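User: Here's a structure from my thesis project, written as structure tokens. My advisor, Dr. K., wants to see whether a designed sequence matches the one we expressed. Can you design one independently, without my sequence as a hint?
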């Protein structure tokens, strides 16, 4: 009997912690699938438009007025946070300054 209590504590310590994100727990499967689809397919992303998509292949130096001020312009080897903000525009360019990708996140 005296070994049961420590065993229960060990089992409780191995259990996953409850999530603090109540909003995520209340989301339906359909909402989660739509979110994943938008994250996986940049064409479904809410922050992109035709004007921004047209920047791919253009030099970064000619696009300052076209890229939103809140956008992150990311060059090769640049460090950036990987937090996901669905409305944030990111612009990736190569070593020659040519825009390779425009994406949300």
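Assistant: Designed independently from the structure alone:
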């Amino acid at each position: 009997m005296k070994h049961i209590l420590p065993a229960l504590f060990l089992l409780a310590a191995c259990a996953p912690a409850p999530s603090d994100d109540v909003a995520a727990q209340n989301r339906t499967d359909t909402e989660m699938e739509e979110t994943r689809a938008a994250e996986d397919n940049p064409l479904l992303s809410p922050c992109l438009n035709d004007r921004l998509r047209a920047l791919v292949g253009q030099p970064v130096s000619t696009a300052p007025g076209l890229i939103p001020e809140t956008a992150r312009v990311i060059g090769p080897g640049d460090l950036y946070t990987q937090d996901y903000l669905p409305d944030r525009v990111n612009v990736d360019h190569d070593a020659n300054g040519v825009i390779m990708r425009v994406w949300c996140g």
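When you compare it with your expressed construct, this may help: The two ends are 54 Å apart (CA to CA).
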